[in-house]
Automatic annotation (TrEMBL):
Residue numbers bearing the 4-aspartylphosphate modification: D61
GO molecular function, one term: phosphorelay sensor kinase activity
Protein name, UniProt field: histidine kinase
The protein's Enzyme Commission number: 2.7.13.3
Limits of the Histidine kinase domain: 158-370
Source organism of this protein record: Hydrobacter penzbergensis
Superkingdom: Bacteria
Amino acid sequence: MQSKETLQAFTILLVDDRPENLISLEELLIQPGRRFIKAQSGNEALRQVLKHENIGLIMLDVQMPDMDGFEVARILKSNAKTKDISIIFVTALSREEHFILKGFEEGAVDYLPKPLDINVVRAKVNVFEQLYLHQVELKSTLSELKRINKQLEQFVYIVSHDLKSPLSSMMLLMELIREDELVIANPELKENIDLLHGASGRLSNMIASLLEHSRTSLANHAIEKVNTSELVREVVALLFPPDQMTINIREPLPVINTHKIGLQQVFQNLLSNAIKYNDKEKGLIEIGASDKGHWVEFYVKDNGPGIADNDQERIFKLFETTAHHSSRDSSTGIGLNLLKVLVEGQGGKIWVDSVKDEGSTFYFEWEKNH
């Protein structure tokens, strides 16, 4: 098994049929954090590539007996496991354009003519080393994101499952209350009980959808036709905005083909925040959309406390909050980060335009047809 230090090193495979050239090239490029593997033929080079999984760069001589560098590159590029390894051809062949083009056609990413210019060789290898290390870091980050997303899905499933049972009991109890003679005799009370019962039903459906959402990844969900106007109205009804809050939906909102649950979560979070944090005597929220070709650009606008300039980028980061807090609820700093993940997960972006004490407008892009 390779050590952690070996896996983190930048491994360079040097291929040349002349041992003195291999020694010279290693001496030229040696520095801390680099590891060198040598091969004196095309066949040996292929064996070394199969043996070592973390090669970051191949310095490949073109003129070799039995199998030349062009053929080695062609074989490597035809294999799914080795096709992404960077190759620099090192050759004394003619500098004429057709020789250089042949190298690029066979999969080279650069070309160094002999005799080698020491400064040029070192500079190019430094660039490829930085690119390789950035790629490794990116892969590690993506792996960590997948792990976190998996944990979040498990968390959503557990919470949704635990909520479903008490909610069912509440709905059953409300059914009994609705049939009570005292409630039937009081129209205002009956209306309020009916509102609670309807909201509980919508919440139950949402929890059922979340359970389904957490069982499989978003990518595996069926695409469905979504009337976003109906979707927004359902979300607003579920949130029970207070009487002093006016919510305007600027019609028409589009009908799109998408994953409904993700879009619903975005609207629910933005509208919930706009209601929760509004500090005005007469709250106002506006929802609208504009056609951007392949995308729909939705917005949720409010006349609330606004967000300071230095907080507008920060609020989309995990566990980040602003100095403003609602008297009705606390913020964990998770919601807007989850929205960012949902929106960017389908290729769009989310941003905010806000003036302190005057209000905020959250914009997000959503693909029309997934």
